[in-house]
Each structure stands twice: as C-alpha cells, then as structure tokens.
Backbone:
C-alpha cells in the first residue's frame, strides 16, 4: 500500500533562516507528488506539485521542492522563512493506479521564531 | 484550478441530530469529489470517493450508513452525518478531482457535536 512519511513532526526555525521539510513516499509506480500548507482552521492550499520533467519544481510563496527518485523523496525547501510561513505542511502522493486518491503524510508543524 | 466552497464553515449540533455539509465546485464540472476527515493535529483521512450520479465508494472502516454522501450534480456533493455523536466532531474537508491526479480542496467544515 502506498504511504507517505514526514519524519519531522515539528520544526522550529528563526525568521530569515532556511527551511527544509522532509517527505518520503513508498510504492513502485510513478508518483504524483504534492505539498500543501494549512493554517489553523483552514483548508489546504497547494504550494507545488511534481508530475514529470524537471525534478526541481518551484511553487508559490518562494517554496521549491526536489524529486529524487533514488531516495523516494520530495523535500520542500525555502531559502528564507517569514513569520507568516508558520503553519502545518502536508506532503501527499497520488498514483495513476489509484483512481486519483491521495495519501497524505502526517504533517509537519512549522514554528517561526522572531 | 477549481474553486471549491463548503457550507457551512462551522456547525454545532446536539447529539442525535443529523447535519448536512455541502461541497460545491464553483467553476469546474466535478465528476469525482472526495471527502476527508481531519482530527486535531492529525493528517487527512480519506472517507469516501463521491461520483456524480452513482453511489459513493467508502474507505475501509467508514460507516456508510452514518456518513451519507450524495453527488447528484456536477457541482454539488453533500455529506450528511446522521445521528451525530461527540466522537463525530471533526474537521471535514472535501476536494474536487481535477487534472491528472490532482485535487482542489474546499476550506473545510468544523463540526462540533455536543
């Protein structure tokens, strides 16, 4: 069965520092990978997605992610974090073989120190 | 992407009553929608796949008689929580299946059962 692992439950960074959130997926087929952000009490906002092609994808709000097939990873990065980036971040994977259903990681809570 | 709305955004009800949550696709013909449940500080759990004009497909462990899903048109799917109990209190999120293996999420509905 497909699964997504976000190893870091909670990450704290200082404002202006760089950020990397980890995501690993398991399954043999070609994945469609997503990163979403969720503020408290809100729905999910898509940050970026990877379907094919260039393995480094750019998203909104200055985020980027790199797909590494050899490591089954799709880590999210941002060079300089802003206080407004504090939120919950979810990595998700979908496969062609699964009728479009997404499997989500458990999420990483990002706290930004002033 | 598709614009998805949910109504109500927040609902409080008494134990034993039924609550209906609407999910609307405002600018996209939604053949398939998904319903998720999210517990506090937890990830999204897929409850069911809603297909326009046919019965919903429920995930293992989800009571189909408790969580009634109707997808009568290409723009509207409803989730009715029947005979709600406090343990049904949660954040319910719907999504619309968009492009290849992509979903567009609604803002969520906070259900509190007293």
Residues:
């Amino acid at each position: 069965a497909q699964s997504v692992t976000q190893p870091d439950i909670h990450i704290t960074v200082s404002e202006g520092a760089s950020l990397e959130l980890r995501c690993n997926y398991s399954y043999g087929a070609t994945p469609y990978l997503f990163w979403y952000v969720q503020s408290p009490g809100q729905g999910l906002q898509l940050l970026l997605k990877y379907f094919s092609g260039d393995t480094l994808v750019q998203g909104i709000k200055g985020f980027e992610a790199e797909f590494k097939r050899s490591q089954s990873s799709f880590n999210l990065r941002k060079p300089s974090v802003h206080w407004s980036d504090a939120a919950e971040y979810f990595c998700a994977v979908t496969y062609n073989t699964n009728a479009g259903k997404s499997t989500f990681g458990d999420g990483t809570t990002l706290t930004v120190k002033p | 992407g598709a614009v998805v709305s949910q109504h109500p955004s927040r609902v409080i009800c008494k134990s034993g009553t039924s609550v209906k949550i609407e999910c609307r696709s405002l600018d996209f013909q939604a053949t398939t929608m998904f319903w998720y449940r999210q517990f506090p500080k937890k990830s999204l759990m897929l409850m069911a796949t809603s297909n326009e004009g046919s019965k919903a497909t429920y995930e293992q462990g989800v009571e189909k008689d408790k969580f009634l899903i109707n997808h009568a048109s290409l723009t509207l799917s409803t989730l009715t929580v029947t005979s709600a109990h406090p343990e049904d209190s949660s954040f319910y999120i719907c999504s619309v299946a968009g492009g290849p293996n992509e979903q567009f999420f609604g803002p969520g509905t906070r259900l509190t059962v007293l």
Q: What stands out?
A: Residues 46 and 68 of chain A are 20 Å apart (CA to CA). Chain A has a mean pLDDT of 91.
